[in-house]
Specification:
Layout lengths: L23 E4 L9 E5 L5 E3 L10 E3 L2 E2 L23 H5 E5 L2 H10 L8 E3 L9 H5 L2 H10 L4 E5 L8 H8 L4 E6 L5 H7 L6 H13 L4 E8 L7 H13 L5 E5 L6 H12 L4 H7 L8 H17 L35
Parallel strand pairs: 2-6, 4-7, 7-8, 8-9, 9-10, 10-11
Antiparallel strand pairs: 1-2, 3-4, 5-6
Helix pairs in contact: 2-4, 4-5, 8-11
């Protein structure tokens, strides 16, 4: 592994994330971590600015991990492992970089004079509640720092481990805006087992939505990805939206699968193995780049929004996932028919 690929000398424009002499590599012979290697580092920074060209609706992120044992075959973050001279396939799933000093770095950043209290998003690159979090327990310190500085934040996850931190989330929500979303793109168990093999089952993720709602924490569902030709049949969309509504989600926001470089190659290799009859169709659909055609995105979004209205929930609005009640609630916007194509997953 070439840690120097993350230094200025590598030709990258961002500052070095850590020194090569600060890496400790560990493996654990337990069933949940078997086959996974952890590279513990003392990072130099943990609050990252989102590139200006990004479609993200926020400017700052915190990612305590690189790589993800959820092993979603479509994960757009796979490309980032290439910066370490690791492959974007199996290495991304099994070589996990752990920023062990993330909570203390965040606390120092929030206390600095230069920080203006901007919103911080988590879980937008790799899942901060992946299996590694059960051992390293970085999120309690991170949420506590955000709570203590009353700094607004949001969390997106496929992990059930977020329930461990409900009390901290409640405390934070008393002093600042807290957004929580769970990612559930489909409830088809066969599809789940093959494209998201390291994640909790979709019904377990919906249990997270129920538990958060029971604690007074509104939780939206990012219905992502909607997988073309495998998870987009009308009956599949209906089953997913119905399950999301029954779980008590405050909103549902559909996002169609997108395939960036790094993820695209790995996903297409998976598709050729499991669904070779679909390869040509995908090549045509994604011939124009990482995103499905606009007409297709709009079609899926329209279907999901219609189903959501039928089951009594709507698309995400600006405050849908916030625990704190604004003094003067803004008027609810009209549901948009066009998709909001975010690069979360």
């Amino acid at each position: 592994m070439r840690w120097e690929n993350l230094t200025p000398e590598s030709g990258r424009t961002d500052p070095a994330l850590f020194g090569a002499d600060s890496v400790t590599t560990r493996t654990f012979d337990t069933p949940e971590f078997r086959g996974i290697t952890f590279h513990e580092i003392r990072a130099r920074s943990v609050v990252n600015r989102v590139p200006g060209a990004s479609r993200m609706p926020f400017e700052w992120t915190v990612n305590p991990y690189r790589g993800c044992s959820h092993a979603c075959v479509y994960c757009f973050a796979r490309k980032t492992h290439g910066y370490l001279d690791l492959d974007t396939g199996l290495d991304f799933d099994s070589q996990i970089v752990v920023k062990v000093n993330a909570p203390e770095l965040l606390r120092a950043k929030l206390a600095s004079r230069s920080w203006r209290g901007e919103h911080i998003a988590m879980g937008t690159n790799v899942d901060c509640y992946q299996r590694a979090e059960g051992r390293y327990r970085l999120m309690p310190g991170i949420i506590a720092a955000l709570r203590d500085h009353a700094n607004p934040f949001s969390v997106l996850t496929k992990g059930t481990l977020i329930l461990r931190d409900i009390e901290l989330l409640e405390q934070a929500a008393e002093v600042t805006e807290v957004g929580v979303s769970v990612s559930v793109g489909f409830v088809d168990r066969d599809l789940w087992r093959t494209v998201e093999p390291g994640t909790p089952a979709p019904e377990r993720r919906l249990d997270v939505v129920r538990a958060l709602a029971a604690h007074g924490i509104e939780c939206g569902v990012l219905m992502a990805p909607v997988v073309p030709f495998l998870g987009d049949r009308p009956e599949q969309l209906r089953a997913t939206v119905r399950a999301i509504a029954e779980a008590g989600a405050s909103s549902v926001t559909p996002l169609v699968l997108h395939l960036r470089p790094g993820a695209r190659e790995w996903y297409m290799a998976w598709l050729a193995e499991h669904h070779p009859e679909l390869v040509a169709r995908y090549e045509r659909m994604y011939a124009g780049g990482a995103y499905a055609p606009t007409w297709y995105q709009r079609q899926v979004t329209r279907q999901v929004h219609e189903l959501a209205r039928e089951y009594g929930i709507g698309p995400e609005d600006g405050a849908a996932r916030r625990r704190v009640r604004p003094a003067a609630p803004p008027p609810s916007p009209s549901p948009a028919e066009d998709p909001v194509q975010l690069s979360f997953l």
